[in-house]
Amino acid sequence: MMSAAAVLNGIDAAIVRLLVDVHPFVIGFFRALFGLLFVAPMIVRRPAILASGYRATHAVRAALKLGGLLCFFVAFTLAPLADVTAIIFLSPILLAIGAWLFLGEKLGPMRVLAIAAGFSGALIIINPGGSGALEPALLLALAGSALMALAQLVLKKMSQRDSADTLVAWNLILTVPLALIPAMFMWTTPGWPAFFLLVVQGMCGALNMALVTRAFSYADASFLAPFDFIRLPAVALIAFLLFGQVAGLSTWIGAGIIFAATLIASRNKTPTRMD
Questions:
Q1: What is the 3-state secondary structure (H, E, C) of 182-216?
Q2: pLDDT per residue as tens digits for the range 131-188
Q3: pTM for the complete prediction?
Q4: Which residue ranges make up each domain of the chain?
Q5: Is residue 105 a contact partner of residue 99, using CB atoms and an 8 Å limit?
């Protein structure tokens, strides 16, 4: 399930790149809208899932996740897909930092080493030529990873009281109006080919969310985390077939370092609270 979700993420990134005539903000709105339409039957059949112990927190999480997605979408249109995807893998590293800062989780020596290694891998990708000029699109991807990590921190707290279905439903319900606000300023009505791609993207997003949610109900996060890295070769292959993009050596080296760092961070758990 995690492997399939990783491939769907690759398809999602390629669709953003294909939608050259649609602004990323508009893509974000339609992705949320069609994603909501695909899960709407579940909500209608089981309205009880909308009962939640949280209110405003759902909106905060939706806004953070939307901000991260929009950063990624803009980066996908400006930079090589494999480079952006590799930077996205920093999210678990940033999550570990956020858990230390805001949730009181301890950082053992191995996790500190993993964080340092993760950022060194990101620097290799962001500045592959060593010219001293940072790539703005990849910095945007880094910002998106930070926003996603914050969203995960909020989710970690909310999952103590709300079910996975409740969290998915409210995220999509609230993301649609939130995404409409920036989309209105960049609005262009998609043509039929673009509209079809947006429908496929919404379907991929909803299916991705369902697969990941179910996978985490079967296995621990530390076991599942490495499978998400299937996304990079999937994206690299799709980018080569559709756009002729070839991931450079620095991308694979940096991604390998980030992968190792994430693996270390996820498998070296420490007590969750400071005394």
A1: HHHHCCCCCCHHHHHHHHHHHHHHHHHHHHHHHHH
A2: 445 578 888 999 999 999 898 888 888 887 888 888 889 999 999 999 999 999 999 9
A3: 0.85
A4: 2-267
A5: yes
